[in-house]
Amino acid sequence: MHCPFCRHADSRVVDSRTSDDGLSIRRRRQCPQCNRRFTTIETASLSVVKRSGATEPFSREKIVNGVRKACQGRPVSDDDLAVLAQRVEENLRASGSAELDAYEIGLAILGPLRDLDEVAYLRFASVYQAFNSLEDFEAAITVLRAENEAADAARAATAGSASEDAPTA
């Protein structure tokens, strides 16, 4: 790390802390030549490999814009979209890969989007899972219904066992 004051090619780390919920590291440095201190913020960059082979920096804004189209006319706020983009980025960073295929990002969006709005999920999935016919939509809807019914049954069983455990008067 070059000193921003005297351009000396080396510096000593005095203090390190995580910031931005662990997404970056704030380092306090000191130059051994001029003894001045300065701060650096280090982040791991994510790159997206497009279908064409071109590489570009990861952008949460692109996720929000892509999902916004699927959410048109749905009760989804801009805050909901921002949280979704954050969740997707956190999941992608947790994978440990510095370069991600654009298709992988689309698939990573599906889970959080499904939790947010099922209709928007179906719209988005129809592109990323290459739905070609009505049968593809019907199959996806059947899976959603089965999983919703299973979740409802699990909630009912949990509520039933909680009421059995409650003391009676």
UniProtKB/TrEMBL annotation:
InterPro entries hit by this protein: ATP-cone_dom, NrdR-like_N, RNR_NrdR-like
GO biological process, one term: negative regulation of DNA-templated transcription
Zinc finger (unnamed) stretch: 3-34
Cofactor, how bound (note): Binds 1 zinc ion.
Coiled coil: none
Gene Ontology molecular-function annotations: ATP binding; DNA binding; zinc ion binding
Domain ATP-cone: residue ranges: 46-136
Keywords: ATP-binding, DNA-binding, Metal-binding, Nucleotide-binding, Repressor, Transcription, Transcription regulation, Zinc, Zinc-finger
PROSITE patterns: ATP_CONE (PS51161)
Pfam family, one: ATP-cone
Cofactor(s) listed: Zn(2+)
Domain of life: Bacteria
Family: Belongs to the NrdR family.
NCBIfam families per UniProt: transcriptional regulator NrdR
Function: Negatively regulates transcription of bacterial ribonucleotide reductase nrd genes and operons by binding to NrdR-boxes.
Protein name (record): Transcriptional repressor NrdR
Species this protein is from: Cellulomonas pakistanensis
Gene name linked to the record: nrdR
